DUF1064 domain-containing protein
Amino acid sequence: MAKPAKPTKYRNKRCYHDSIKFDSEKERSRWFHLIQLQAAGKIRDLRLQVPFILTERKRRDDGTWERASKYVADFVYFDVETGKQVVEDVKSIATRKNRTYIQKRKQMLDKYDITIKEI
């Protein structure tokens, strides 16, 4: 007999659309909205799950390697009106308070001068 599935940490429900995996229904809904904005010509070059390297891979004194750290943005696009790149992340109130996310958000601002738009 199979065990019932354990609920996710933040109670989000993973879902798919056209073989694209989304971490939540809210993220999938935002994807649909951004596709409509792109079709209307308000945004362009819409991409999802875009990685940004925050710290490079480095060799330690003992010869072992420290992994690179990265931030993966939910959505990246260019706003046609402002001409600026926008980096979006779909976050609940609880996940916005996550210490790891806050640190990565600060590193994105420091390294790339990018303020993450939280949806």
User: Anything to note?
Assistant: The mean pLDDT is 91.
